[in-house]
# Entry
Amino acid sequence: MSGNNNYAVVLNFYEKVDPPPNFKDFVEGWHNLGKFVRKLEYFVATQLHRNVDSNGKFKYMNYATFNDTNQVVIKDMTQPTPELLQALGESHGPPGLQTNYPGGYHEVITSGGAIAPDLPANPASCFLISAFRASSDIDSLDVEKEVELLTGLDIIKNASSSSGKFQVGPWALYKRFTPAIPFQPFDLVFRLELQGLDSDLEPAKKLVQELNKAPTVEGVERSCTELYQIQTKDVVVHE
# Structure
């Protein structure tokens, strides 16, 4: 089913998260930036996803939604205002201190109906997130036809039914609309909610290992699949 193009979704993968100078850790700086962003008239909400694996490639993934403002999102990324630059500098530190890959996306297909902005956030669930890079123009990819192979949905569903340890919740596939330069964002991102895991994450961790070895469609490389959780305090909504 088609996704929700009434929103622009900004997905930001954080690889290096050294603490900014004025804050004790990355998360505290993230919340400081949230104080600025929540006042933007086109902002809807943002959720910080924490990697359950302390050795994971991307320690955090931020999932932010904005009212359908493609050009505004592109401008914020390529020509940010002095006010936004100041907020970013205060919250994330000087260039090079942290490494992240932000991009603007649209939902192109979902498990049923629109997902974004996905509120209220569900801290009881885990989120399986896969990032992909395409070797050709992403607009030429017919991802809707090959979504099962691309994302490994068949593997996920089989793992759910065979283990009985979790249920497959809502999912969405996102396609980038912002320029690849200068941030080198991923071209496609898949986000799926795993429900019913309770405190035992081992079945989900085994699934992540299997997915990272799984094939995908021609012309698309799986960069990583990782498991994340949301804490209620790490959700910011429009003021």
User: Anything to note?
Assistant: The chain has one domain: 7-237. The mean pLDDT is 93.
